[in-house]
Amino acid sequence: MCDYDWCTTQHPAGIHPSDDDHRSSGVATPTPVRRVDETGEGTDVDLEVGLIRRRTDGQTWLVLDAGNGIGIELTLDGARRVFRALLREEALKSALDL
C-alpha cells in the first residue's frame, strides 16, 4: 500500500513503496509552449501537469512537462508561492482571468 493517496504507480510486490518512485496520473492540457530563448507562436503540445516523488526525493514536486526536454518541476511550496503571486499581482491576475 502506498503512503500517497495521489500516487497511481503500480508498485511491484516485494518492493517497499519508500524504495520506489511515486507519480500521479497527471492531467494533459493542449497548450502552445516555447523555450525562453525562442520566439514565434511556439509548438502545440499536450502539457502534462502532475505530481512526482522519486525515491531519492525528500519532498513531492509539481511537474509541468511539455516533452522534448521542455519542462520544470517545482516543490509544492514553490508552486503555492507562484500561484499566490499570480493572484496577488493585479496585472497577471487580470491577464490570466483569475
Give the strand content: 25-35%
| DSSP helical segment count | 2
Instruction: Sum up the overall morphology in one term.
Output: globular
Q: Provide the gyration radius in Å.
A: 16 Å
Structural class: alpha+beta
Helix fraction bin: 10-25%
Q: What is the chain-wise order of helices and strands? A: EEEEEHH
In this structure, how is the largest beta sheet organized? 5 strands, antiparallel
Uncertain stretches of 5 or more adjacent residues = none
Give the SSE layout:
Elements: E1 22-23, E2 27-33, E3 43-53, E4 61-67, E5 70-75, H1 76-88, H2 90-95
Antiparallel strand pairs: 1-3, 2-3, 3-4, 4-5
Describe the structure.
The protein is α+β, with helices and mostly antiparallel strands. It contains two helices and five strands. It has helices spanning 76-88, 90-95, and strands at residues 22-23, 27-33, 43-53, 61-67, 70-75. Strands 1, 2, 3, 4 and 5 form a five-stranded antiparallel sheet that branches. β3 (43-53) and β4 form a beta hairpin.
Task: Give the gist of this structure.
The protein has 98 residues and is an alpha+beta fold. It is built from 2 helices and 5 strands.
Relevant terms:
98 residues, 2 helices, 19% helix, alpha+beta, globular
